């Protein structure tokens, strides 16, 4: 008994929650349903009743006024006059075919949809042809009751529609007449007051921005004025121009051209208002590339060239730069960011004198600066002394936050290589002596092509790239002059 009472309490709690009432009979019981005639059972996982003279089952703890009431119905072999359906706005049910106050809507095996009023007698309100009704076939019966308006659907097809205000609220239930019937997947959803949808949106405000970085406040007029949810979502669709927009409808110009502003209703009506805005007077993105570093380096040394931009108008968010250099004079060592916020996305060195660098600017304080160091490029001087080479920006494409691209002014940078001239103290003893002369003699005949030139070059006293008689004579003179 305690278990039954708990089940009834749970059913009552469910029934009193109008959103929604559901019974799928998955628990194999019909707790909360009161039957009036017939043998009803939920043991199969659905609610069944055998044929008889008007049987009913009522969820007496329910009370609905305006609602949508749905259930699956099927009938096994029964007479053509057999029918099964739902009762609603029910009061005072007792045993007997028509013993209740309320309404009935159901299907018959004769292929009709009946809708009637019951007041301990039967008054037919509608009886229309339904989609073909066959035995052992499941049909979805739906009743939509809103005030005096009652609509009946079979498989989502409207069949009956009447107006009757006799009964305005009451319980829900099931009813059969001479039918072996099965009910399942019962669902009742109570209606709230109908929303008033947005029908149109007109955007008000000027149609152009002519000042640099100018703004334009736009407003949305929603119709009808009493729409339930008049709020809109603002967005801008960039066209030939660029702009940004905030959630309150403020448009900010970025680049010249046209943009389309859209205000979309938030009430799921999918209504959209549009307005085209012309933008002019915005600064074109431009910049000069810069290369900075030492103009003179020693043979075999590593040196750094800094690549950047200056005289920037607009905001630089990305760049794609190709740099050329004489591969027989300089050898790339590495590339590193010169400023926090500059990201080297990728770079490629073809080892033939061309480097392509793709960079991104994510520094919050960098986009608006007029001068930005990008990267440090480290080279090694592998060329001959007393030679010069030019490191040059071949092409630099920059882009702003709107994706507008422009080409920065190219630049170039000359670097001179000087010889690594020895001071003559080859053995590092602090003096010029015969020991130093011996070391020069040991490297006699070697030049830059020699595999051990990195060691032998200390004997090249005049820095001409070879060790010969001139170096021996110079060393001898230094010994004699000590």
Detail the poorly predicted runs.
6-18
Biggest β-sheet description: 8 strands, antiparallel
Q: Distance between the terminal alpha carbons, to the nearest Å?
A: 124 Å
Strand content: over 45%
Helix content: under 10%
Q: What is the CATH-assigned architecture of the largest domain?
A: Sandwich
Overall form? elongated
| Overall number of structural domains | 4
Which CATH top level class of the largest domain fits? Mainly Beta
Number of helices: 4
The average pLDDT value, as a whole number, equals 89
Number of strands: 35
The named CATH superfamily of the largest domain: Exo-inulinase, domain 1
Q: Indicate the radius of gyration in whole angstroms.
A: 46 Å
Q: Could you name the CATH topology of the largest domain?
A: Jelly Rolls
The structure class reads mainly beta
């Amino acid at each position: 008994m305690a278990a039954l009472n708990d089940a009834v309490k749970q059913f009552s709690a469910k029934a009193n929650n109008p959103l929604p009432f559901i019974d799928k009979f998955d628990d194999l019981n019909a707790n909360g349903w009161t039957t009036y005639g017939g043998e009803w059972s939920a043991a199969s996982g659905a609610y069944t009743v055998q044929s008889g003279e008007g049987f009913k089952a009522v969820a007496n703890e329910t009370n609905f006024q305006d609602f949508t009431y749905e259930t699956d119905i099927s009938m096994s072999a029964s007479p053509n006059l057999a029918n099964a359906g739902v009762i609603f706005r029910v009061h005072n049910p007792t045993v007997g075919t028509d013993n209740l106050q309320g309404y009935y809507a159901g299907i018959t095996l004769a292929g009709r949809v009946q809708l009637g009023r019951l007041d301990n007698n039967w008054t037919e309100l509608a009886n229309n042809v339904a989609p073909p009704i066959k035995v052992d076939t499941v049909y979805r019966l739906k009743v939509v009751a809103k005030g005096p308006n009652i609509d009946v659907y079979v498989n989502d097809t409207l069949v009956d529609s009447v107006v009757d205000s006799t009964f305005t609220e009451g319980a829900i239930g099931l009813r059969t007449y001479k039918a072996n019937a099965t009910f399942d997947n019962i669902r009742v959803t109570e209606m709230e007051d109908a929303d008033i949808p947005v029908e149109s949106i007109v955007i008000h405000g000027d149609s152009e921005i002519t000042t640099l970085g100018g703004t334009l406040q736009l407003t949305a007029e929603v119709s009808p004025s009493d729409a339930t949810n008049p709020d809109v979502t603002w967005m801008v669709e960039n066209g030939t121009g660029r702009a940004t927009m905030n959630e309150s409808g403020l448009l900010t110009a970025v680049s010249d051209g046209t943009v389309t502003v859209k205000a979309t209703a938030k009430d799921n009506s999918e209504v959209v208002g549009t307005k085209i805005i012309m933008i002019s007077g915005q600064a074109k993105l431009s910049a000069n590339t810069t290369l900075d570093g030492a103009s003179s380096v020693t043979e075999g040394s590593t040196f750094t060239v800094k690549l950047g931009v200056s005289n920037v108008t607009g905001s630089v968010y990305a760049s794609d730069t190709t740099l050329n250099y004489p591969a027989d004079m300089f050898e790339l060592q590495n590339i590193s960011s010169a400023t926090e916020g500059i990201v080297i996305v990728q770079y490629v060195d073809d080892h033939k004198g061309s480097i392509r660098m793709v960079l991104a600017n994510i520094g919050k304080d960098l986009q608006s600066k007029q001068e930005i160091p990008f990267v440090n490029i480290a080279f090694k001087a592998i060329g001959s002394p007393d030679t010069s080479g030019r490191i040059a920006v071949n092409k630099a494409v920059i882009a702003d936050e709107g994706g507008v691209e422009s080409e920065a002014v190219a630049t170039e940078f000359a670097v001179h290589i000087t010889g690594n001239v020895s001071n003559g103290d080859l053995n590092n003893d602090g003096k010029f002596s015969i020991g130093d002369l011996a070391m020069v003699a040991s490297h006699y005949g070697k030049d830059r092509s020699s595999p051990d030139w990195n060691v032998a070059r200390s004997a090249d006293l005049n820095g001409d790239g070879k060790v010969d008689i001139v170096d021996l004579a110079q060393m001898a003179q230094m010994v004699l002059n000590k």
